[in-house]
């Protein structure tokens, strides 16, 4: 149901969307804590990963209770709702849709019956063998099972249904069996009445980390969510690992051999800057990317400005390396968030100005280096360049802290279709002309990889180089299960 919160939507122009992340997951096992509130704040820290729907499920030893709805975490939950979610174990989810439409019945955690009780599951990633898994569900349990029965068309509902389809198995045993048959990207947190579970695909495409509370344990998509609830980082959940946390402590088992292929785009854009990946903050990595960008694409200019906020650390690095002063030339409306309010045609024409506004006295008469994280369709950069020229900028040199995005992602990031990706159709010079800049430079792929300090073979770079580490789905598209279930 549409509802307003007085905020502006990020999707003022449906043709002008940046890359979309595919969800944040959070789980906590802590008998002495208010687990629902911890999960709320954990999801709040992960809101950037998914803004379409949010949900929390709580286990209290006897039952599992779930509450989920469309909207931001702060829109879905209030004090009264959270006070009804009482237990010692909880899992939470903030959703952006990759498989299955943006509808209430596809919100997570997904609930399902198992031989031993109930499971509630949240998923970050995207599966590549959903059609095969749907057949497997149909053969093992019928297609009228769990949330599939109520129109849930997500790959998450398939995993949940499969977890309940092994008679005589514990949830841990079923999970090990099921995950060995699932392909694609999946960082999962799930719970039953008493235990918390976490698992990660053999490639570890999406992040998932384990943290320690004084009297409990936390799993989360990013370390920043551990910080926010006061948990200490312990380690990553390993690719191909299943972790179970209950009154006996933490135990781990492998369901597949690890073949690490972490998402390179997490470093560029997706993860929070205060998250740690591979032992250092994403912010530090982005600053280093900016330094390399300055070495590869130097230019005579008066001021380096970021496109806030994901371009900020790379702009800092560019300024440090080039010696050109860093400044703030664009102000972002901090209260732009996702809502269900559609802008009127007049507002739509204002476009990017509702999100970003130039500081005229800073940019007027200057030769600018404008640093952004990526170009997908190019609409944003085109509008930005025009806006900065109108504000008096003398020259505009656009620098991008990722290589050209030429290929779609099948592992949980919704960029655009291949034909919509500007770099798929045009050379860098043509893109420069298309967005109206005086010059354009992208960071080189190898330089980007070096900046992460992660060895190249351990990274997925498919959206940049077209080399897919996991076989892409036979039928791509987020509505694949709408088709097979129709
Ligand atoms: S294709 Fe790109 S966005 Fe998708 S997982 Fe690989 S590196 Fe990340």
TrEMBL record:
EC number: 2.4.2.14
Glutamine amidotransferase type-2 domain ranges (all copies): 23-248
Pathway noted in the entry: Purine metabolism; IMP biosynthesis via de novo pathway; N(1)-(5-phospho-D-ribosyl)glycinamide from 5-phospho-alpha-D-ribose 1-diphosphate: step 1/2
GO biological process: 'de novo' IMP biosynthetic process; purine nucleobase biosynthetic process
Molecular function GO labels: 4 iron, 4 sulfur cluster binding; amidophosphoribosyltransferase activity; magnesium ion binding
Catalytic residues in the record: 23 (nucleophile)
Region of interest: Disordered: 1-20
Residues bound to Mg(2+): 310, 372-373
Cofactor: Mg(2+); [4Fe-4S] cluster
Function: Catalyzes the formation of phosphoribosylamine from phosphoribosylpyrophosphate (PRPP) and glutamine.
Family: In the C-terminal section; belongs to the purine/pyrimidine phosphoribosyltransferase family.
Protein name in UniProt: Amidophosphoribosyltransferase
Organism: Phytoactinopolyspora mesophila
């Amino acid at each position: 149901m549409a509802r307003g919160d007085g905020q502006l939507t990020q999707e003022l122009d449906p043709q002008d969307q940046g890359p979309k992340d595919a969800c944040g997951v959070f789980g906590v096992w802590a008998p002495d804590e208010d687990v629902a509130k911890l999960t709320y704040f954990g999801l709040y820290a992960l809101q950037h990963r998914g803004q379409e729907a949010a949900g929390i499920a709580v286990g209290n030893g006897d039952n599992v209770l779930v509450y989920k709805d469309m909207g931001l975490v702060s829109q879905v939950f209030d004090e009264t709702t959270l006070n009804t979610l009482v237990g010692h174990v909880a899992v939470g989810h903030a959703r952006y849709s990759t498989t299955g439409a943006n509808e209430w019945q596809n919100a997570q955690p997904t609930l399902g019956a198992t031989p031993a009780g109930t499971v509630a599951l949240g998923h970050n990633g995207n599966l590549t063998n959903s059609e095969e898994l749907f057949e497997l569900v149909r053969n093992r349990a019928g297609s009228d099972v769990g949330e599939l029965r109520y129109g849930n068309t997500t790959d998450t509902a398939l995993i949940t249904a499969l977890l309940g389809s092994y008679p005589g198995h514990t949830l841990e045993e079923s999970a090990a069996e099921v995950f060995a048959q699932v392909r694609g990207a999946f960082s999962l947190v799930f719970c039953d009445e008493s235990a918390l579970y976490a698992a990660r695909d053999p490639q570890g495409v999406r992040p998932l980390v384990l943290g320690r509370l004084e009297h409990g344990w936390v799993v989360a998509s990013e370390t920043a969510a551990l910080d926010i609830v006061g948990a200490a980082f312990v380690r990553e959940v390993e690719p191909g690992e299943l972790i179970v946390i209950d009154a006996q402590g933490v135990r781990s088992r492998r369901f597949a051999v690890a073949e690490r292929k972490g998402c390179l785009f997490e470093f560029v854009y997706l993860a929070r800057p205060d998250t740690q990946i591979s032992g250092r903050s994403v912010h530090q990595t982005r600053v280093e990317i900016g330094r390399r960008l300055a070495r590869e694409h130097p230019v005579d200019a008066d001021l380096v400005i970021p496109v806030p906020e994901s371009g900020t650390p790379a702009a800092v690095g560019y300024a440090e390396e080039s010696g050109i002063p860093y400044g703030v030339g664009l102000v972002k409306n901090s209260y732009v968030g996702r809502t269900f309010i559609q802008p009127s045609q007049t507002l739509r024409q204002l476009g990017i100005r509702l999100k970003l506004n130039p500081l005229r006295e800073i940019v007027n008469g200057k030769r600018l280096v404008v640093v952004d994280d990526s170009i997908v369709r190019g609409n944003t950069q085109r509008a930005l360049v025009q806006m900065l020229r109108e504000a008096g900028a003398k020259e505009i040199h656009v620098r991008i802290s990722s290589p050209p995005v030429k290929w779609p992602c099948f592992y949980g990031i919704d960029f655009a279709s291949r034909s919509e990706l500007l770099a798929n159709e045009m050379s860098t010079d043509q893109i420069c002309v298309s967005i109206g800049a005086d010059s354009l430079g992208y960071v080189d792929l190898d330089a980007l990889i070096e900046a992460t300090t992660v060895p190249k073979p351990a990274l997925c770079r498919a959206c940049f180089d077209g080399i897919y580490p996991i076989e892409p789905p036979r039928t791509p598209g987020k509505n694949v299960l709408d088709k097979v279930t129709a």
